[in-house]
Amino acid sequence: MTWTRKDLLTMRALDASEITLLVDTAGSLQEIAGREIKKVPALRGKTVVNLFYENSTRTRTSFEIAGKWLSADVINFSASGSSASKGESLIDTARNIEAMSPDVVVVRHSSAGASELLARTLKCSIVNAGDGCHEHPTQALLDLLTIREKKGHFEGLQVAIVGDIAHSRVARSNIHAMRKLGMTVTVAGPPTLIPPFVGELGVKVSHRLEDAIRDVDVIMMLRLQQERMTGGLIPSLREYSRYWGLTLDKLAKHARPDVLIMHPGPVNRGVELSPEVADGPYSVILEQVAKGVAVRMGVLVLLAGSKAAAQA
Amino acid sequence: MSPSPPARHREKAQVLDEAALDRALTRIAHEILEKNDGAKDLAFVGLRTRGVTLAQRLSAKIARIDGTTLPVGTLDITLYRDDLDLRGAPVIRGTDIPFSIKNKTVVLVDDVLFTGRTIRAALDALIDLGRPRMIQLATLIDRGHRELPIRPDFIGKNLPTSKKETVAVRLREHDGEDRVVIEEPEGA
After folding, report:
1. Does A96 lie in the same domain as A161?
2. Is the ipTM of this structure higher than 0.95?
3. How many helices (H) and strands (E) does chain A have?
4. Residue A40 and residue B90: Cβ atoms within 8 Å?
5. Which pLDDT score is estimated for A312?
6. Which of A129, B60, B82, B149 is most deeply buried (CB count within 10 A of its CB)?
7. Interface test with A, best of B76, B84, B95, B123 (most A CBs within 10 A)
8. In contact, A121 and A99? CB cutoff 8 Å
9. What is the pLDDT of residue B2?
10. What CATH number does the domain containing A152 carry?
11. CATH classification of B15-79+93-164 is 3.40.225.10, yes or no?
């Protein structure tokens, strides 16, 4: 199995063996983080551009570190303080960046499909680092790597994804990937935050936290994305937190003792996760972040090293 | 690490059978001990995949001869290759050296030595992990055609080949048999 795609845009487009290859490659690269000299020459002379139209700390930093550990030159471009704020269109900005011959462009944008548009327009490899409410494939990959290291396998695992499913690209990427890997997924949240046809993705739907987290191997809590909400979706933060916030008490009563608690970050402490749970023994939130660097190294190596990219 | 065969190959000649392969490794084990005045501060690092297996066998032989069990590490040099662009998407299986190589004499083990480019990459990869006191090179087959100034310290067999032939080291653990053969492309 080798990688043949020019871009990484969605988990939906990948098959199980491609997802496994990405997770395996990331797993092998983890040892670099433990080295005294955290640098390998694999992407020497390659240029990676981080093109971020939305705020990001974790993902952008993670791609930047990943690129630098692989010896690529990494250039960060954020929409504020650039020509995008002067009214330049996404495609014009991207064409201008392409004129500077990057090998990989990592793009985050508030519109679904933005990375796909760039992939069709530009010859270099495109990595989707989150497009609106659509997909965030590298987040799903780091979640999968974390799950496999903790549980040893994928097949047959039960996962509950809880909270703001409607606005979550993390949920969508994970649902597609987990279904392909033979996992059972339940999405849970207030009806206003569950997309109407989510059942068509092959997931179960629950409207009670207590039911959703019973007997599952993994609980993935999502952030309430207030910046994407137009209002009126939840009565109040306090009520949301009371019904949908994960606390030690609810865990002890309803969840398995060996459950994994995951969160893609940033955490709204006291809203979807109580601080005791976020920092507690079941939480693997910081391991997810550490694995993010390995996943992004894997993606960059496979894309920049693939023949599809070289010949495009 | 031998280059992956570009097309179907047929066997042209057998170079080593099981007994000869084993004798070659026994001799290399003795030579390693002789050259280093014993097994003190020695460590093996094998190149994926068959170099690791050979390193484990050498370590077992030295344990039998000298009573010292030397550690064996695994090196994946994919990230250090100079031809990543030419080979298609890389397959990375990871480096695993669970001991410090600092101030050790590291014996690098590969199955076939050819252009020397793999060893060049391995030297860079190893030195990034620490500063060994010395690095020595052991290879089961030296088939010539070097493109870099690299010379092995321990050789199982010198084997003059043509560039279009390939040398296949088959080991029980991977291929179900212990044998070294020369192959040539079908129709050649």
Report:
1. no
2. no
3. 12, 9
4. no
5. 45
6. A129
7. B84
8. no
9. 47
10. 3.40.50.1370
11. no
